[in-house]
Amino acid sequence: MTLSATTTAASDLARRALLESIPANHVGKAMDSVDQPSEDSAVAIATHTFECTSPAYPGWYWEVSVIGISGQENLTVSEINLLPGTAALVPSAWKPWADRIEAGDLGVGDLLPAPENDERLTAGLTGLDEFRDDLEPLHPQQWEMGLGREQILSPLGMERAVDRWFKKLNGPRAAMAKSAPAHCGSCGFLVPIGGSIGQVFGVCGNEFGAADGQIVATTFGCGAHSSVKEAQGAPIPVVDLVIDDRADELTDGSDLPDYVADEPKPDHDTFDHNDDVELANTSAEAEFEDLAMVDKIESALEILETQNLEADESAQAMADFYDDDEDSE
């Protein structure tokens, strides 16, 4: 058996070496053994891999390197590694500290030097002695050219700044801009910026605006635009009277039929007019008959009272007569 085949077949040796430092319940079945290239023909290297069954490292595997040297009877275990598999949970790739700084990370007192050969900057004009008389005061056009500054924004740096500002909250795609009555480019509170960048950007000078003191795109906008006027009118909204006279113009009504009233339907539950008159007459006659009967009854009562009164007077006269006779005897 060749030396290379010997190292490749040494799976049991690799497992024993692994169990010397790793708990047995963390080592699974053998996965593979691979021959590794060697610069020395007298040295053979093979790697043996085993499953990692540790609950803390799912998806990882053990790798044991076995070395065989020509002329030596025993094989040697070179190293043991725990490596991540395709399903292992691993951190993101390492990022240099200089590349980890993001916008908003700079705090009070922090210093952030620009890197060497920063592509965002280009050389300015520093020879000011010959222009000293012309630089009092420094005009915006001179400032844009870089007079008095060691470096100025390069075209690439300017392009990146414009793209970055457009994507921020004060750009034309912001929800505030989409609902604004007008753009900042027509607002009286916009403070202009010099140079070519001033064609698309300015500074908001409205203390009640959505971006006071901030860079805003001329296509940005908010509800505090200078053209917004207070609505004049009644405090209570009144709906205007709407008269639809269009229908009268479209037709004169000549094609409509004449109006004919519906005949009244007889009501079977009541009497007709003649029956009402006859009933009224009958009621009047009955009332007169009743009155006549009442008169007769009253006359009869008067007669009876008179007769009774006369009978009482006769009886009293007779009583008085007999009383007088008794007294005379």
What descriptive keywords fit this protein?
single chain; elongated; alpha+beta; 17% strand; three-stranded antiparallel sheet; 329 residues; four-stranded antiparallel sheet
Description:
With 329 residues, the protein is α+β, with helices and mostly antiparallel strands. It is built from seven helices and nine strands, in the order ααβββββαβααβββαα. It has a four-stranded antiparallel beta sheet with strand order 1-2-3-4. A three-stranded antiparallel beta sheet has the order 7-8-9, with no helix packed on it. The relative contact order is 0.05. The model has no long low-confidence stretch (mean pLDDT 76).
Record the SSE blueprint.
Layout: H1 3-8, H2 11-19, E1 27-36, E2 43-52, E3 60-69, E4 76-84, E5 121-123, H3 140-145, E6 151-153, H4 155-167, H5 175-178, E7 190-192, E8 201-204, E9 215-217, H6 246-250, H7 273-328
Antiparallel strand pairs: 1-2, 2-3, 3-4, 5-6, 7-8, 8-9
So what's the overall shape? elongated
Query: What percent of the residues sit in helical stretches (DSSP H or I)?
Result: 25-40%
Radius of gyration: 62 Å
Question: Which structural category fits the helices and strands?
Answer: alpha+beta
Strands of the biggest beta sheet: in what spatial order? 1-2-3-4
- Element-by-element helix/strand order: HHEEEEEHEHHEEEHH
Q: Distance N terminus to C terminus?
A: 198 Å
Main β-sheet, in a few words?
4 strands, antiparallel
Flag low-confidence runs: none
Strand content: 15-25%
**Average pLDDT metric:** 76
Number of helices: 7
The counted number of beta strands is 9
